[in-house]
Amino acid sequence: MNQPRIPVIAIDGPTASGKGTVAQRVAQQLGWHYLDSGALYRLTALSALRSNIPLSDQERIAALAAALRCSFAGAVVRLSDADVTDAIRAEEVGNAASRIAALPAVRQALVGLQLGFRQAPGLVADGRDMGTVIFPDASLKIFLTASVDARAQRRYKQLIDKGFSASIIDLSRDLIERDARDMQRTTSPLKPAEGAFLLDTSDMSADQAVAQVLRWYAQILL
Ligand code: C5P
User: Fold this and answer.
1) Cα–Cα distance for residue pair 72/36, rounded to 1 Å
2) What percent of the chain has pLDDT above 90?
Protein backbone atom coordinates (compact mmCIF):
# COMPACT_ATOMS: atom_id res chain seq x y z
CA MET A 1 0.00 0.00 0.00
CA ASN A 2 1.30 3.48 -0.85
CA GLN A 3 2.13 5.68 2.14
CA PRO A 4 0.12 8.92 2.01
CA ARG A 5 2.62 11.53 0.84
CA ILE A 6 3.68 14.26 3.19
CA PRO A 7 2.38 17.54 1.72
CA VAL A 8 4.81 20.15 0.45
CA ILE A 9 4.26 23.79 -0.45
CA ALA A 10 7.06 24.89 -2.80
CA ILE A 11 7.84 28.59 -2.96
CA ASP A 12 10.36 29.60 -5.61
CA GLY A 13 11.46 32.97 -6.86
CA PRO A 14 14.35 35.35 -7.42
CA THR A 15 16.72 36.79 -4.85
CA ALA A 16 15.18 38.97 -2.11
CA SER A 17 11.65 38.49 -3.40
CA GLY A 18 10.46 37.92 0.17
CA LYS A 19 9.97 34.18 -0.22
CA GLY A 20 11.93 33.39 2.95
CA THR A 21 9.69 35.52 5.16
CA VAL A 22 6.52 34.32 3.47
CA ALA A 23 7.56 30.65 3.52
CA GLN A 24 8.53 30.76 7.20
CA ARG A 25 5.26 32.38 8.20
CA VAL A 26 3.19 29.94 6.15
CA ALA A 27 5.07 27.06 7.82
CA GLN A 28 4.43 28.59 11.23
CA GLN A 29 0.70 29.04 10.56
CA LEU A 30 0.31 25.48 9.35
CA GLY A 31 2.60 24.03 12.04
CA TRP A 32 4.81 22.54 9.30
CA HIS A 33 8.57 22.23 8.83
CA TYR A 34 10.50 24.82 6.84
CA LEU A 35 13.36 24.36 4.38
CA ASP A 36 15.49 27.36 3.42
CA SER A 37 17.31 25.66 0.54
CA GLY A 38 19.28 28.84 -0.23
CA ALA A 39 20.92 28.48 3.20
CA LEU A 40 22.39 25.13 2.09
CA TYR A 41 24.02 26.81 -0.94
CA ARG A 42 25.18 29.64 1.31
CA LEU A 43 26.65 27.18 3.85
CA THR A 44 28.48 25.35 1.07
CA ALA A 45 29.78 28.67 -0.30
CA LEU A 46 30.92 29.79 3.16
CA SER A 47 32.79 26.51 3.64
CA ALA A 48 34.47 26.92 0.26
CA LEU A 49 35.45 30.54 0.97
CA ARG A 50 36.83 29.62 4.39
CA SER A 51 38.83 26.74 2.91
CA ASN A 52 40.11 28.93 0.06
CA ILE A 53 38.69 26.57 -2.54
CA PRO A 54 38.25 28.30 -5.92
CA LEU A 55 34.53 28.74 -6.63
CA SER A 56 34.95 26.97 -9.96
CA ASP A 57 36.37 23.78 -8.41
CA GLN A 58 33.25 21.68 -8.88
CA GLU A 59 34.66 18.44 -7.49
CA ARG A 60 35.97 19.83 -4.21
CA ILE A 61 32.92 22.00 -3.60
CA ALA A 62 30.57 19.08 -4.32
CA ALA A 63 32.57 17.07 -1.75
CA LEU A 64 32.12 19.90 0.77
CA ALA A 65 28.36 19.97 0.03
CA ALA A 66 28.05 16.20 0.42
CA ALA A 67 29.78 16.36 3.80
CA LEU A 68 27.99 19.50 5.06
CA ARG A 69 27.42 19.27 8.83
CA CYS A 70 24.76 21.84 9.52
CA SER A 71 21.75 22.34 11.73
CA PHE A 72 18.80 24.72 11.89
CA ALA A 73 17.24 25.53 15.26
CA GLY A 74 14.69 28.31 14.98
CA ALA A 75 16.55 31.19 13.39
CA VAL A 76 20.00 29.86 14.32
CA VAL A 77 22.06 28.18 11.59
CA ARG A 78 25.12 26.18 12.56
CA LEU A 79 27.96 24.87 10.47
CA SER A 80 30.07 22.21 12.21
CA ASP A 81 28.73 23.49 15.56
CA ALA A 82 29.66 27.16 14.91
CA ASP A 83 26.88 29.75 14.76
CA VAL A 84 26.96 31.15 11.18
CA THR A 85 23.46 32.69 11.19
CA ASP A 86 24.74 36.14 10.25
CA ALA A 87 27.87 35.08 8.35
CA ILE A 88 25.87 33.24 5.67
CA ARG A 89 23.75 36.36 5.00
CA ALA A 90 26.70 38.53 3.91
CA GLU A 91 26.50 39.65 0.28
CA GLU A 92 29.88 38.08 -0.50
CA VAL A 93 28.51 34.70 0.60
CA GLY A 94 25.26 35.20 -1.34
CA ASN A 95 27.21 35.96 -4.50
CA ALA A 96 29.50 32.97 -3.97
CA ALA A 97 26.41 30.79 -3.34
CA SER A 98 24.92 31.83 -6.65
CA ARG A 99 28.17 30.88 -8.42
CA ILE A 100 28.54 27.44 -6.89
CA ALA A 101 24.79 26.82 -7.37
CA ALA A 102 25.45 26.72 -11.12
CA LEU A 103 27.68 23.63 -10.70
CA PRO A 104 25.61 20.48 -11.41
CA ALA A 105 27.62 18.21 -9.06
CA VAL A 106 27.08 20.67 -6.19
CA ARG A 107 23.32 20.72 -6.80
CA GLN A 108 23.27 16.93 -6.96
CA ALA A 109 25.23 16.67 -3.69
CA LEU A 110 22.54 18.71 -1.88
CA VAL A 111 19.49 16.78 -3.14
CA GLY A 112 19.37 14.12 -0.39
CA LEU A 113 19.77 16.70 2.36
CA GLN A 114 16.82 18.69 0.98
CA LEU A 115 14.56 15.65 0.59
CA GLY A 116 15.24 14.81 4.25
CA PHE A 117 13.35 17.93 5.34
CA ARG A 118 10.10 16.41 4.07
CA GLN A 119 8.68 15.31 7.40
CA ALA A 120 5.17 15.06 8.84
CA PRO A 121 2.92 16.93 9.10
CA GLY A 122 4.22 18.92 6.08
CA LEU A 123 6.97 21.07 4.61
CA VAL A 124 7.15 24.57 3.22
CA ALA A 125 10.27 24.72 1.03
CA ASP A 126 11.76 27.91 -0.38
CA GLY A 127 14.34 28.25 -3.13
CA ARG A 128 14.75 28.32 -6.90
CA ASP A 129 13.96 24.73 -7.92
CA MET A 130 11.70 23.44 -5.16
CA GLY A 131 8.68 23.01 -7.44
CA THR A 132 10.59 22.13 -10.62
CA VAL A 133 13.24 19.65 -9.43
CA ILE A 134 13.35 18.80 -5.72
CA PHE A 135 9.63 18.42 -4.92
CA PRO A 136 7.92 18.12 -8.33
CA ASP A 137 4.95 16.45 -6.59
CA ALA A 138 4.39 19.44 -4.24
CA SER A 139 0.70 20.02 -3.43
CA LEU A 140 1.03 23.73 -4.11
CA LYS A 141 3.68 25.58 -6.12
CA ILE A 142 4.15 29.32 -5.92
CA PHE A 143 6.43 31.55 -7.98
CA LEU A 144 6.97 34.65 -5.89
CA THR A 145 8.38 37.76 -7.54
CA ALA A 146 8.80 41.49 -6.90
CA SER A 147 10.30 44.34 -8.90
CA VAL A 148 14.09 44.89 -8.74
CA ASP A 149 13.48 48.18 -6.87
CA ALA A 150 11.28 46.57 -4.23
CA ARG A 151 13.75 43.71 -3.80
CA ALA A 152 16.79 45.98 -3.53
CA GLN A 153 14.99 48.06 -0.87
CA ARG A 154 14.12 44.92 1.11
CA ARG A 155 17.64 43.51 0.91
CA TYR A 156 19.05 46.91 1.92
CA LYS A 157 16.84 47.00 5.00
CA GLN A 158 17.72 43.40 5.93
CA LEU A 159 21.46 44.09 5.71
CA ILE A 160 21.31 47.38 7.60
CA ASP A 161 19.18 45.76 10.33
CA LYS A 162 21.84 43.07 10.68
CA GLY A 163 24.57 45.71 11.02
CA PHE A 164 26.12 45.24 7.55
CA SER A 165 26.82 48.27 5.37
CA ALA A 166 25.10 48.36 1.97
CA SER A 167 24.44 50.50 -1.10
CA ILE A 168 21.14 50.34 -3.01
CA ILE A 169 22.93 50.78 -6.35
CA ASP A 170 25.36 47.92 -5.70
CA LEU A 171 22.54 45.74 -4.38
CA SER A 172 20.37 46.34 -7.47
CA ARG A 173 23.29 45.45 -9.75
CA ASP A 174 24.04 42.29 -7.73
CA LEU A 175 20.36 41.24 -7.80
CA ILE A 176 20.19 41.62 -11.57
CA GLU A 177 23.44 39.65 -12.04
CA ARG A 178 22.34 36.93 -9.65
CA ASP A 179 18.89 36.61 -11.28
CA ALA A 180 20.55 36.30 -14.69
CA ARG A 181 22.89 33.58 -13.39
CA ASP A 182 20.02 31.69 -11.73
CA MET A 183 17.79 31.90 -14.82
CA GLN A 184 20.43 31.13 -17.43
CA ARG A 185 22.21 28.17 -15.85
CA THR A 186 21.64 24.84 -17.54
CA THR A 187 21.01 22.80 -14.38
CA SER A 188 17.78 23.60 -12.52
CA PRO A 189 17.37 27.16 -13.82
CA LEU A 190 15.06 29.50 -11.96
CA LYS A 191 11.66 29.41 -13.66
CA PRO A 192 8.05 28.96 -12.59
CA ALA A 193 7.13 25.29 -12.17
CA GLU A 194 4.32 23.98 -14.34
CA GLY A 195 1.06 24.81 -12.62
CA ALA A 196 2.69 27.34 -10.26
CA PHE A 197 0.63 30.27 -8.98
CA LEU A 198 2.37 33.59 -9.66
CA LEU A 199 2.51 36.04 -6.78
CA ASP A 200 3.97 39.53 -7.35
CA THR A 201 4.63 41.04 -3.92
CA SER A 202 6.04 44.42 -5.07
CA ASP A 203 3.08 46.25 -3.56
CA MET A 204 2.07 43.68 -0.98
CA SER A 205 2.92 43.29 2.69
CA ALA A 206 4.31 39.99 3.93
CA ASP A 207 1.00 39.40 5.78
CA GLN A 208 -0.97 39.82 2.55
CA ALA A 209 1.33 37.44 0.70
CA VAL A 210 1.04 34.83 3.48
CA ALA A 211 -2.75 35.16 3.45
CA GLN A 212 -2.81 34.62 -0.33
CA VAL A 213 -0.67 31.47 -0.12
CA LEU A 214 -2.89 30.07 2.64
CA ARG A 215 -6.02 30.86 0.58
CA TRP A 216 -4.58 28.97 -2.40
CA TYR A 217 -3.69 26.03 -0.18
CA ALA A 218 -7.20 25.99 1.33
CA GLN A 219 -8.65 26.03 -2.22
CA ILE A 220 -6.70 23.00 -3.38
CA LEU A 221 -7.86 21.05 -0.34
CA LEU A 222 -11.51 21.54 -1.29
O1 C5P B 1 17.75 32.25 -1.51
P2 C5P B 1 19.16 32.70 -1.27
O3 C5P B 1 19.47 34.07 -1.79
O4 C5P B 1 19.57 32.53 0.15
O5 C5P B 1 20.07 31.68 -2.10
C6 C5P B 1 21.44 31.90 -2.32
C7 C5P B 1 21.80 31.43 -3.73
O8 C5P B 1 21.64 30.00 -3.79
C9 C5P B 1 20.88 31.97 -4.82
O10 C5P B 1 21.38 33.17 -5.39
C11 C5P B 1 20.81 30.86 -5.85
O12 C5P B 1 21.81 31.01 -6.82
C13 C5P B 1 21.14 29.61 -5.05
N14 C5P B 1 19.99 28.74 -4.85
C15 C5P B 1 19.70 27.81 -5.83
N16 C5P B 1 18.70 26.92 -5.64
C17 C5P B 1 17.95 26.94 -4.54
C18 C5P B 1 18.19 27.91 -3.54
C19 C5P B 1 19.22 28.81 -3.74
O20 C5P B 1 20.37 27.79 -6.86
N21 C5P B 1 16.99 26.05 -4.39
Assistant:
1) 9
2) 84
- Cα 81 to ligand 1 centre (Å): 22
Judge if the beta carbon of residue 42 lies within 6 A of ligand 1.
yes
CATH superfamily, with its number, for domain 8-215: P-loop containing nucleotide triphosphate hydrolases (3.40.50.300)
> What is the pTM assigned to this prediction?
0.93
Confirm or reject: Cβ of 41 under 6 Å from ligand 1: yes
Nearest atom of ligand 1 to the alpha carbon of 98: 12
- Ligand 1 centroid to 205 CA: how many Å? 22
Span from the CA of 208 to the centroid of ligand 1 (angstroms): 24
Is the minimum distance from the CB of 97 to ligand 1 under 6 angstroms? Answer: yes
| Of the candidate ranges 50-54, 72-76, 206-210, the one whose mean pLDDT is the lowest | 72-76
Q: Round to whole Å and give the CA distance between 36 and 24.
A: 9
Q: State whether the beta carbon of 18 lies less than 6 angstroms from ligand 1.
A: no
C-alpha distances in Å from residue 101, one per residue of 38, 69, 94, 138: 9, 18, 10, 22
Domain boundaries in the chain? 8-215
